[in-house]
Design brief:
Blueprint (H helix, E strand, L loop, with lengths): L2 H17 L6 H12 L7 H17 L1 H17 L5 H31 L6 H16 L14 H13 L7 H11 L4 H29 L7 H28 L3 H16 L1
Helix pairs in contact: 1-2, 1-3, 1-10, 3-9, 3-10, 4-5, 5-7, 5-9, 6-11, 7-8, 8-9
Length: 270
């Protein structure tokens, strides 16, 4: 394993990790990087590991909220006390919102992978432009709905938005936050729901991909580069999510609009 192999794995890990939380599409950026720099990464283990690294970053940052929601949901199941119902329903709506992406991911995974690949990045450019336009439309929205005001229809719409984000170039966090803000959610509620929604999807990817990882030939030869990519993705995701949380508080989503429009246009032109 030469130095270039280590560098490319770490570079892709950091790139995926940094772009996962922010609304610019991590999958689109990784495919663009592989196309423009001629980087080949064998097997699915790499994608599974870096996504798991981003999941750990989300769990670390939101650990207090997650523990709170889990405890209160269990208390509602045990006591049926109305004061715990808000947190229980939040979990229920998360599960409902997970269904569209889970179904489409299982049924259309091969088709999407064939349509959007590193050999034809024009569609990724189009998708990035669509992401930028969507972010522009909601850039000034300040909703009033918090956790207890979320409805079944809200959960379904946000879940459908996440399903659309299976297309590389359509940001998962961007699509779900856009949908939530369009439904009148507060920004902090939209962001929490979006990243909590990432948890079951990421766990599902791990569960369905574990067999591929175990059976991947010569995986022992890639332990070092995979470890570097994992650590790079974990650190990058952590600080990127922290940065994005500050941007959401200040309402500066316009910077991602401009970025997506510029990169999408460059992809189409060059």
């Amino acid at each position: 394993m030469d130095i270039w192999e280590l560098v490319k794995y770490m570079f892709l890990g950091i790139l995926q990790g940094f772009t996962e939380p922010i609304p610019v599409s991590s999958s689109g950026h990784v495919l663009l990087a592989r196309h423009w720099f001629g980087i080949e990464v064998e097997g699915l283990s790499f994608e599974i590991l870096v996504n798991f690294a981003s999941l750990l970053a989300v769990l670390l940052i939101y650990r207090s909220d997650l523990i709170h929601i889990a405890n209160y949901s269990l208390k509602f199941i045990q006591t049926k006390d109305i004061k715990y119902k808000k947190d229980f329903m939040f979990v229920v709506y998360l599960l409902i919102a997970t269904i569209p992406a889970a179904i489409l991911g299982i049924t259309l995974e091969d088709y999407i992978s064939e349509l959007f690949n590193e050999n034809d990045v024009r569609m990724i450019g189009v998708a990035l432009i669509i992401t930028g336009i969507a972010l522009w439309f909601i850039r000034n929205l300040r909703g009033k709905k918090n956790d207890q005001n979320i409805t079944l229809l809200d959960a379904v719409i946000v879940g459908l938005a996440q399903a659309i984000a299976l297309i590389p170039g359509i940001s998962r966090s961007g699509a779900t936050i856009v949908a939530a803000l369009a439904r009148g959610w507060k920004q902090d509620t939209a962001m929490r729901f979006s990243f909590f929604l990432y948890i079951p999807i990421s766990v599902g990817v791990m569960v369905f991909g574990i067999t591929d990882m175990i059976n991947e030939p010569n995986i022992e030869t890639r332990i070092i580069p995979y470890t570097l990519a994992f650590l790079g993705a974990l650190i990058a995701s952590y600080f990127s999510l922290k940065w994005f949380m500050g941007i959401m508080q200040r309402g500066n989503l316009i910077i991602f609009t401009v970025y997506c429009l510029i990169v999408g246009t460059v992809v189409l032109l060059f």
